[in-house]
Specification:
heterodimer; A: about 230 residues; mainly alpha; 6 helices; about 40% helix; B: about 400 residues; Arc Repressor Mutant, subunit A; 4 domains; 3-stranded antiparallel beta sheet; 16 helices; globular; DNA-directed RNA polymerase III subunit (chain A); RNA_pol_III_Rpc31 (chain A)
Amino acid sequence: MAGNKGRGRAAYTFNIEAVGFSRGEKLPDVVLKPPPLFPCSLKTKDTDYKPVPLKTGESEDYVLALKQELRETVKRMPYFVETPEEKQDIERYSKRYMKVYKEEWIPDWRRLPRELMPRKKCIKGPKSKKAKDTGKGPSLTNPADVLKKIEELEKKGDGEKSDEENEEKEGSKEKSKEGDDDEEDDAAEQEEYDEEEQEEENDYINSYFEDGDDFGVDSDDNMDEATY
Amino acid sequence: MTQAEIKLCSLLLQEHFGEIVEKIGVHLIRTGSQPLRVIAHDTGTSLDQVKKALCVLIQHNLVIYQVHKRGVVEYEAQCNRVLRMLRYPRYIYTAKTLYSDTGELIVEELLLNGKMTMSAVVKKVADRLTETMEDGKTMDYAEVSNTFVRLVDTHFVQRCPLVPATENSDTGPPPPAPTLVVSEKDMYLVPKLSLIGKGKRRRSSDEDATGEPKAKRPKQTTDNKEPIPDDGIYWQANLDRFHQHFRDQAIVSAVANRMDQTSSEIVRTMLRMSEVTTPSGAPFTQPLSSNEIFRSLPVGYNISKQVLDQYLTLLADDPLEFVGKSGDSGGGMYVINLHKALGSLATATLESVVQERFGSRCARIFRLVLQKKHLEQKQVEDFAMIPAKEAKDMLYKMLSENFISLQVGCL
């Protein structure tokens, strides 16, 4: 039950003065819709409160120019990791020569966790490792180490094992030797590995036949085969 | 981190390092500390790419790693450090104002590369400066080295944590990750290097500013074969020191605005004297005697001792309390109240924001509430001397924009 309002007279159920209106004063208009979201206008005597203008000056201009330069420079740094583009169905010959030169960056592996070093599982692996082994003769005079190395080379030769399995099996022992050796080969092998990835998948070892430096240049001159 | 901050980090990482690094970085910011495999699995990125991304992030001091039990290495993003990338132009400009072009380029190289050895920095900067010089002139390594040393002496550049030298690598399996050691006393110790040489100008045939494609390039430069004398000693920009400089600048310009040029120079002198003796988080600087300040004033300023004392007294009596008197020995011991000064500056900024958005009467109410901490509706009207209806209107506006909040108390 709503209860008896004061005997026919309209009376508010709370003290109207607390809200800020004195008796008999005109109540403000009923608000029918929410206030506009934007612009946030606060009109007092026809002055909108506009934001204060930005600071400008020589130093601000210089800092702005620095920022724009920085944005351009960082894209050319080796730290900018490009997203690998999808394989195209037709490999354009010109693409090979359009690669913009970027300096290679090799981190100081001594400062990083060993698990971050890239692992190679390409066919080139055993070949390069063998070459390295002959070079690093003195350090592998320990027969136990040699056995371990051979074991590990066999595993690499399979090439079927997944990255994760490799890491778990070899563990930390092998890493200590590979850690320093791999530093210089990593960059070179990774680059070559990428090239191999892009070549067709066939049974031929890509490094077996090396294109000479004159391969592309001379092909136009010796068109003997193409005469009909 | 708020959603807006995470979005900002994402944009910064993407701009500086590309999408892959951004994906890994944002993932770490969102989820906290994680090991390598989990990152690869959760982001759906290949292990190789995650490794590369982490190497880049660690190089730039944006991610740190920690070895947990059972040899698991976890990576953690330094969210606040990512946001500092916004300030790179400001840091570089500060170095320019203090140490001119050489200093500017040194700091720029350090920020772009995260960390570098001194020899690498000197060589790179000398080459860059030589490019801009007239034909036939080159920049000497010694000059660049000198500027580098000055930057280190004033703590703008500091050493990175070191890899501890271990001789016992044969006894047991080496740890999965090196534990980097921060050496407090060596932080600003410059190794004795004799860097002799001059900057090299790049030959014009190699340089291609238009960005045309270049097919063949030598894979490795010959310099990599030479032994590096300061191998393993890396340097980074000390961002906290730059922040301290910004703080000092803000205080000095506040004093200049409020009082006059001479007072601001005195305050600047006091701050400069406390630069390396006072820790950056301290509430006030070490006490400085009036005599010391007098001796340290810049050469051009020839005000007499009495005038200096008068200025100091004025500063100490100012209600803003930027400068305080802590004793009477040595002609009067004075300190700069850093926390109070920063508090006043922050308050002034807030009041200015309210004034520009809502008007000066709202600003008056806001100042009142800020000063008295809690006020009731009626008290606001009385103290601010604003009619009740308008006062309510203004309070509600500020409430709706979250400048003021309500607190319900029981009597």
